[in-house]
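User: These chains co-purify. Model them together.
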Amino acid sequence: MTIYVVVVVTVVFTIYSAIVPILQTPDESPHIRYIEFILQNHRLPGKEEYSDGRVLNQSSFLIQLNQLQQSLKIARNPNFHFPFDSIKTPPTQDIHLSYIFNHPPAYYLYAMLFFGFGWLISNGFALIGIKLANYFLLLVSLYYSYQVGKLFSDKKDTLFPYVLGLLVTSWPMYLFLSTGANNDLLVVSASCGLSFYLIRAEKRASIKVKDFLMICIFLSIGILTKAQFFVFVPVVFWVILKYFKTLEVGKNYKKLILSCVPLFFPLYFYISQIILYGRILPTPRDVSYDKAQAAVSCHGYSLFHYVKVWFFPRIPMIAQSFIGNFGWLDTKASKETILIVSFVVLLGLGGFLIGFLTKKKFRSEFKPFVRVVVPIALLLESFYSFLFFREYLQRCYVFFPTQGRYYFLLLLPLSFAVLVGLRKLLTPLGEKYAYIIIITLICLLNFYSIAILIQRYYL
Amino acid sequence: MIKKTLITVVCILVAISPLIGIFIKREYDIEQFFVPNSFNYDVTPFAELNKNHYLVQSFKARADSLTGVDLVLSQSQSPVVYELIDPETKEIIRSGEITMKGEVRVTRIRFSPISLSRDRKFELFLQGQTAEGPHLAYSNGEKACKQCSLAVDGEIVDGNANLTPVYKADSLIGFTKILFQRLKSNLKVYAK
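Assistant: Joint model of the two components:
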């Protein structure tokens, strides 16, 4: 069965990789430039590039890619609002200096290894290298999703971990994102790994030294990848403090100290950032930033107006781009599709919630999961809300994450809750049929996404 | 056994139904035309046409079986009449009504395929409802265009729209060939 699931995920990933053209995933240009810069200079962008971003904005590789894409008329669909008769897009304009300095380097260092090997052969292989790097991350997510499923499945229900793994790794927007360079992919894999070890600790009511090491590794990778991963920090501290005694410090202190070594990397990185730039993630001002600020500046609107116009309307925007808004957010799944998928997701969540609130056995079974996941979800949403209000108050500028991928950190917990809820609701049909229906729905959503991508780029 | 096979077949068919849909339609485009800043009857002669008709674009079909056009327009709150005209004879070849939905996106105009359309010239006209003008609502709630003369408007006034003629493949094999040729051209990027 494991092999079947890996084959299915590999095939679906290959299909997405083949049909999504280059530079079509969100912010792919700056991501690639970041990787390319590290490869060329054997270091991270530093003070020099911070004060003069021209080096970061010069990439003959990206210019070539853009020209090639345009000459082949790949992004040909009219949804792509672009006049082919007057091609004058300077691709380097897409590379925002602030973007590169705003992201910690873990993903870029990792992807650089694959990109670099490919680079030795040709530019095309360098791009394939990025896809391969992403594929391995997908397998990590699959493995840990499976492991989380296994924690909660009994001998009778052996399918559950496989279906959970499939649901997480076959989520169309996740697969779409995996076709290009994007640090969210490492965030997803690290969050799957970390969630597993935290949930396992909760379930066992103890932490083993090996698990402690893995928690430190995944936490370090996560916070060295994207800022929102910091939401895991309080939960990790809470779980470790809770089961600190079970670590048997007196007996294992050497191993425990060694396990903490990975944490020094992010610590070193962020301390260096503060010394160099005065902030953990500096934001150099560049042209695009100023333009964006001018476009959505306050114009004297009240905070109430901003909350009304930006804060709440983002919910359908997030739902749409979590379920299906491909290309550079220009190839949307139909409203009907979004509504149906949202309904199924809410149905699953509702089933989970009802079970948790009304059934004692259900509650005791899934308590370890809820104890880990709910604080993370609340902290994540609080973090985004904080960003919104901070930007409004400090700069009178709305910078607020409205893309579903910012919530991919919760992809595994969400899939888990939905799957358990749906299984519960569909159980009267028989457990096996419940899974058949769920797998058919996953496949349907994927083929629908592939169909709209084909229409977008090729028809 | 039969029940199991039947369930499997039904599930597979349901799952791949979106792809079947693409093959049933068999529609494809060859090129896009950039529509210049001409969506305004002041700059287009309309001697023989109703003044409410606005020329969007004249174009030459590059394949047989022209079956429609995709046009990037802004939203309109009223239905719009389209007419596809032969510029030489002024004959209305196809006409109909389209209703644009509430957001800036592609408007798909479809009609029965025009056989032997290759190298024929066409002109696409739209008839706007001139009552109130467009309501191109931005996300901040403001209306972008307050005094426009045409309900089909917005991007076009800025000369910023694309028109794409759409054709229908003669056969399923022909369509599959087109699709795979294009996929191949995408994959060429990795061979460079």
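Confidence is low (pLDDT under 50) at residues 36-51, 129-161 of chain B.
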